[in-house]
Amino acid sequence: MLKTFRIGGVHPPENKLSAGQAIKTAELPKQAVIMLSQHIGAPAQAVVAKGDKVKVGTLLAQAGGFVSANIHSSVSGTVAKIDTAVDVAGFQRPAIYIDVEGDEWEESIDRSETLVKECNLDSKAIVERIKEAGIVGLGGATFPAHVKLTPPPGATATILIINAVECEPYLTADHQLMMEKGAEILVGTELLRKAINVERAVIGIENNKPDAIAHMKELAAAYPTIEICPLKVKYPQGGEKQLIDAVIRRQVPSGGLPIATGAVVQNVGTAFAVYEAVQKNKPLFERIVTVTGKSLAHPSNLKVRVGTPLGQLIDACGGLPEDTEKVISGGPMMGKAVVSTDTPTTKGCSGVLIIRDLESRRKEMTACIRCAKCIAACPMGLAPNTLMNATDHKDWERVEKEHVMDCIECGSCSFTCPAHRPLLDYVRMGKARVGAIIRSRNAK
Q1: Measuring CA to CA, which residue among 118, 196, 126, 191 is closest to residue 155?
Q2: What are the φ/ψ torsions at residue 388 (nearest 5 degrees)?
Q3: Torsion of CA 188, 191, 196, 198, to 10 degrees
Q4: Please, where are the H alpha helices in 91-248?
Q5: Is the dihedral of CA 397, 402, 406, 411 positive or negative?
Q6: Which of 209, 224, 312, 428 has its CA 20 to 30 A from that of 198?
């Protein structure tokens, strides 16, 4: 019997339109816009200035703290300016603009396709190489990888879980990456396992990717420490806490960190990036992005340099359809609608989704019918209807008491609500307010 998580979950239409599409390399932009906030934590601090010449892989900005990440140039050329640019949320954020001139790489990067399996580095050296390369979680959360690989005092890792679930509808980047770079992913998994000093690694893959499961199982036969774990299809199984529950039947305590279960979770794309960083000395400056939509001419999986405008990726897949109402960075459940297709690609951009006008319109909200479907769907065991009402009445004490900070913002509640109530919108508002209250309280 296939494993899955035990609390809540929904089954949105998969719409994997780009499944099976070979990864194609996107063209270089004429000007790359490199955001300095591409990760959870403090923004990186620029170490270049206007007029500087840079190559592909040149360090542009250093981590602004322990929870931060280095940022490297994805192109070669001249720094045009250091200014601000609009991010996916519509806010102006610091960014480095680079006028592209050719494609010259740093000589230290190994650009060969030769698979390098052997690594003589110890765990600390592997983590340091990952930190230097600016690796972050590529599943969307963009948590700096080196932080996850450094458990807090008193916490001990016992298992590594690689998240190859890709439960978000439409997205197929991780699926295709496994099909084309499975050998490299397994080496990256071994490096991550060595970095945290555990004896076992499990790669969780949902059962709607039978070709990837078979392919990875065949490759993993040479790795006795790595297990391929097929999982029942259920959203949001790609959530860190849900994946831990599915794979090892342990639940992260309320308010706790995943390491409390002994598990360290990394995305399958992150495992590939770790391989490239440690074995090829290649910083994280490009990633696979699914560009898709029901009206898009050519849904595709593209290898994209960070800083490329989203509009350029859409043009490469046939152009913006006439019936487009929204462009989303990410998937339909957890992605964000962008205010402009000039928004640059970042490390955390797993997909670009074109939503048709009829599908993007919200239906009129009606009164709650007390059906409890939102409660049954919530993978964190929360009561979204109660959280919405308490937020609407600004009862922040009640919102906190109802564990709003445990919400993973998966959207299952809104998806399942027959009254079309914007549950997640209110929960997010409550979570932001309570989070600010907690930070203020802890600062005293």
Answers
A1: 196
A2: -65, -45
A3: 90
A4: 123-132, 145-148, 173-195, 210-220, 240-248
A5: negative
A6: 209
Amino acid, single-letter form, for residue 102: G
List where CATH 3.10.20.600 sits in the chain.
286-360
Whole-model pTM? 0.96
Q: Is 66 helix (H, G, I), strand (E, B) or coil?
A: coil
Instruction: Tell me: pLDDT of 362 over 90.
Output: no
Residue pLDDT, tens place only, 76-96: 999 999 999 999 888 999 999
The rounded distance, in Å, linking the Cα atoms of 276 and 135 is 10
Give start-end residues of each CATH 3.40.50.11540 domain in the chain. Answer: 123-280
With CA atoms as reference, report the closest residue to 36 among 1, 98, 84, 81: 84
Return the sign of the alpha-carbon dihedral for residues 201, 232, 288, 39: negative
Do residues 268 and 183 touch, judged by C-beta distance below 8 A? no
Q: Is 45 left (phi over 0), alpha (psi -120 to 50) or beta?
A: beta
What burial letters (b/e) apply to 411-434, b meaning 16+ CB within 10 Å? bbbbbbbebebebbebbbbbbebb
What's the whole-number average pLDDT of the chain?
96
Assigned superfamily of 123-280: NADH-ubiquinone oxidoreductase 51kDa subunit (3.40.50.11540)
**C-alpha dist (Å) from residue 407 to 186, 239, 255:** 32, 11, 10
Q: Which fold has domain 286-360?
A: Ubiquitin-like (UB roll) (3.10.20)
Range(s) within the chain of domains with CATH label 2.40.50: 29-100
| Of 202, 325, 369, the residue nearest 271 (C-alpha) | 202
Handedness of CA 394, 397, 402, 408 (dihedral sign): positive
The greatest distance separating any two alpha carbons of the chain, rounded to the nearest whole angstrom, comes to 64
Q: How far apart are CA 68 and CA 304, in angstroms?
A: 22
What angle in degrees, to the nearest 10, is found between the helix axes of 210-220 and 173-195? 30
Tell me how many degrees the CA angle 389-393-397 measures, rounded to the nearest 5.
90
**C-alpha to C-alpha distance for 73 and 79, rounded to whole angstroms:** 10
